[in-house]
Amino acid sequence: MSAILCIFRGQAGRTLFTLLLQATILWTFSAHFSQLSAAEKRKIPDDLELQLAEAKVKADFARGYKTRDRSELLTLSRQLHQKAGQFRDNPALEFVYLRESIQFAAKAGNAKLAFTFIKDFAQRYDVDAFKLKKAALQTTGTKLTKREEFEQLSRITLELLVETLAREDFEESNELIKKAQTYYKKSKSKALKSILTKISRDLKSISKAREKLDFTLKRLPEDSTRGEANLLRAEYYCGFLGDWDKGLDFFSRGQDLKLLDLAKKDLEMPSSEFDQLALGKSWNEKAQSMSGLPRSWYTERAIYWYIRALEKFRGIERTRIVTEIKQLNNHFEKPMVNLLPASPIGVVVALADKKKFDSWTVKDGKWTPTKSGVIAASSREDIHLVSKLPGKWSHLSFEFKGGNPGLYFTSSRNESSQSQGVNLDEDGDNNGEINRSIDNRKWNTIRLERTETGNNYYLNEELVHTSSRFDNPVHIRLKSQRGTTQFRNFFAIGVNTENG
């Protein structure tokens, strides 16, 4: 599925289509992990074996089955899941331990953990993961009391919703959006309100597009060409679902010669920067003739190819491409918060200001978004802000002033050690990578450029450090220490792909 591509907005998934593609990719990623077909998974043990196994589990954990304390239920859930690993040679006991760990995670009000256990369960046994997730959501919803818990549950519900959209199950999608709205009302989250409004609108748009496609295909004249039908299908899959795997294939067999040629070139995945740039321009031209979801999707595709070409250019041409990406990036209205974890295939864009702060996780300390950037206040200890999504960052730039900041990268959001980066301290003795002091009383600029040979770091337009390229997608980690640091005009773009 290398042709399935998307752009993840670090601050937000642009519209519902971003979630659609993430869901599709997430399926691919899960398949890659499990490497198990339905035939290779274990069959569900028979009823008698399961009854005996369940009786043993309930006897061994009798106290846990009686408790209603959520923290104890959560502990029991983890214990049961861990216990399952000890019974690979006893399918009935393994099955019951896995099943019960999910149920207790839901009873503890932790749908996220339940979903994690369900993924493991579905990789081992031929069970219906979707039904298990729906049941877990239902149970979790009856256990929560806090607003922030209902907000998280609403977001998790939307993660499940995109699975239904990826397979075009609009009935289930509508049911889940209603559940998400119910949880939102209990959370009273202003951010969720705009997200759900956008999703509902986009869902109607996709559903109507599907109905229109089916209606039109049924009424095509008998003497119409297959190319006409393929073109209609291509416009639907690319323009509304963002399914480039299907859409490009239909375009390549359609009747529009220009789009046919463009799709074939795209499917070839060219390595030449000039061919990549040309593809970006062509998809951008297509986007400008569209509106709504289709315009957003084709713009996303254009940005993807611009970024693929970016690291092979230098100087003025590279700056021009970055500027164009920024302009296209600002095209979308009211982007919605990114709901899914990072995917192995895609592109990430990270911004940071008051309107686009959802791409970040405050690791520690106090970080306050402002109109143009972020202010970090620290005493003596290091505090950190980490990007939610990882990437092989092709371009990253921002201005900083005050404090003693640093720019680092980590393989995971929770990891404390940095893989590479630069310290930006006032005292040059603390800046081993760049070996110079910095006047942090004024605004300074730091820029990272990923090239074909390595990562180049520029301080106030001077090359000060070179390191190896990112072998794998990494999270951006901003550091502040000893005082107040201001960051502004933050912009980062990169690929998060296996072949990027």
In short:
The protein folds into 3 domains: 15-206, no CATH class; 215-320, no CATH class; 347-495, Jelly Rolls, CATH 2.60.120. Helix content is 50%, strand content 17%. The chain has helices at 16-34, 47-60, 62-66, 70-84, 91-107, 111-124, 129-141, 147-166, 170-187, 190-218, 226-241, 244-251, 257-267, 273-288, 292-310, 315-329, and strands spanning 7-9, 347-352, 360-362, 366-369, 373-378, 383-387, 392-401, 406-410, 420-423, 444-450, 455-459, 462-467, 475-480, 483-495.
Written description of the protein model:
This protein has 500 residues and is α+β, with helices and mostly antiparallel strands. The chain has three domains: 15-206, no CATH class; 215-320, no CATH class; 347-495, Exo-inulinase, domain 1 (Jelly Rolls, Sandwich). The protein contains 16 helices and 14 strands. Strands 1, 2, 4, 5, 7, 10, 11, 12 and 14 form a nine-stranded mixed sheet that branches. Strands 3-6-13-8-9 form a five-stranded antiparallel sheet, with no helix packed on it. The model is unreliable at 1-39 and 333-345 (pLDDT under 50).
